[in-house]
């Protein structure tokens, strides 16, 4: 059965992480149906709009976040700037039950090599390395990482651990943070993609965001703490948030802004296609190289090994593992993802028995 996957490429990978953090703050865009929480039909659009106007700003934001938690799928487009990647743009589609994502990212101004696609299917991540990767993987342009098998030792060099955590995130996880801001206010009404919305704005610090987790259950706190860690890594300690909520009480657009150690974070996410089917298939097997197979080595058919395999297998790592993991994955072109993966696999000392293919 096909499942949805995140898609992102080379330099856009770390950007994808920042973007996805923004997505989490946005919550969902479209509604999950025409029934209220009690199963009864909701009122007319005009009635919903009037009710939204009567609600306190923080309450309206909180209600939108709750509705977002019920979404089963959605699409979104993004544009903005991150501290590490500069200007980026992209599109994505996500299914939450089960979690599956397809994403395409572009790092603007960095050339065509900065375009990326990533897919997550049945617990495996697929990275599209393009023509450059095909030259190193016997004509195969896709690299497969089975996240449950390879673990951090092999995927760490690719930032795969971070990517898998991003892929597992529910877009509603952070959407309630804005309601915890002291200065949440109603800005006015605006139309986005033909949809009438109410615009809310507020500013919140990371300590306030962390404090807002005190009343949440353990699982929710754990998920959202990981999101806060992403902001801390960027050096962002305060976020200005704008949320546009449609007449059905769902987030239509979300913008977040902050200043990081390496530059500004300014991302805008616009949602659509709530609960519409999202399907993504794994790349064709004949176009895919499994990283687990690289870790095993070319035992069965040495001739099938990628060029230079034996030499890489015999040599120690060119870069210490901690340094590799610390390298910004967003600065890598698609082909270099595959080179890093091959190095990680060829230098792995993990027993073959632990690598299920």
Q: Can you characterise this structure?
A:
The protein has 357 residues and is α+β, with helices and mostly antiparallel strands. The protein has one domain (1-357): outer membrane lipoprotein receptor (LolB), chain A. The protein has helices at residues 12-26, 45-54, 57-68, 130-134, 147-155, 160-167, 206-211, 218-234, 291-296, 309-314, 321-326, 334-346, and strands spanning 73-82, 86-96, 99-107, 116-121, 124-128, 142-146, 185-192, 195-205, 238-246, 251-260, 263-272, 288-290. The protein has a twelve-stranded mixed beta sheet with strand order 7-8-9-10-11-1-2-3-4-5-6-12. α1 packs parallel to α6 (160-167). The radius of gyration is 21 Å and the shape is globular. The two termini are 19 Å apart.
Q: Roughly how much helix do the residues carry, as a percent range?
A: 25-40%
Task: Indicate the mean pLDDT.
Answer: 70
Order of helices and strands: HHHEEEEEHEHHEEHHEEEEHHHH
Based on helices, strands and strand pairing, what is the structural class?
alpha+beta
Number of DSSP helical runs = 12
Radius of gyration: 21 Å
CATH level 1 class label: Mainly Beta
Spatial order of strands in the largest sheet:
7-8-9-10-11-1-2-3-4-5-6-12
Q: Strand share of the residues?
A: 25-35%
Shape by Cα distribution: globular
Biggest sheet: strands, sense, closure? 12 strands, mixed
**CATH fold category name:** outer membrane lipoprotein receptor (LolB), chain A
Low-confidence stretches: 1-43, 153-165, 312-335, 344-357
N- to C-terminal distance: 19 Å
Number of domains: 1
The CATH architecture: Clam
How many E-type strands?
A: 12
Organism: Streptomyces melanosporofaciens
InterPro entries: LolA/LolB/LppX (IPR029046)
Protein name: Lipoprotein
